Every structure is written in structure tokens, then in C-alpha cells.
Amino acid sequence: MISFLSGIISGMGIGGGTIRIPALTIFFGTKQHIAQSVNLLTFIPTGLVAVISHFKQGNIEKKLTFKLILGGIIGAIAGSYLAVVLTPGILRRLFGIFLFIMGVYEIFCKEKDK
Q: What global pTM score does this model have?
């Protein structure tokens, strides 16, 4: 059920990790570092399916793609090094703060579709 829900959320572009990481740590007792690693591995096939679907629908701005890929690679390298040096407790708190901020943003700041 958790995989199904995270897959739906991934397909919507929100990110399945918002469901997957807390579920792995709370319900299965998985360490935070391992849960985040599993989340990153599951992102590969779900992300590939989403890219193909959005490409077919013409939803990808090709001019921005290279810049976003480059920034994503640099951010992934920096984030992975940071995640390795942080303790699981701090990493869990930072992830919780991130989810809270994103929730507040979604409720109050995001422009509603018309």
C-alpha cells in the first residue's frame, strides 16, 4: 500500500519520498540514511516513467533541461556528502522541517491553477 501511494504521489510530481521515507522509518524501523537511499533508488524507474510521459505530452522545456540537470547533479553530490556526515537524528529533523516548509508553501504560497 505504501508503494502504491508513493507511486501515485510521484506521478503527480510531488515526490514519493514524502510518503516513503516516513513510512520506512516509522512503520518498518529503517534507519534514516537507509530510508533515504531506498527512496533515491526507487526514484530512478518512477522518474523515468514520468519523464517519458511528460515528454510525450510536450510538457518539457528543452532549453531549461540542461541547466536543471547540471544543477541537480551538483546538488545531489553536495546533498549526499552532507547526508553522510549528519547523524540520523539531525537528518530526520531536517527532513521533517523540509516537509513542514513545503506543506506551508503548498497551502499558503502556491498560486492556484485557474
A: 0.63
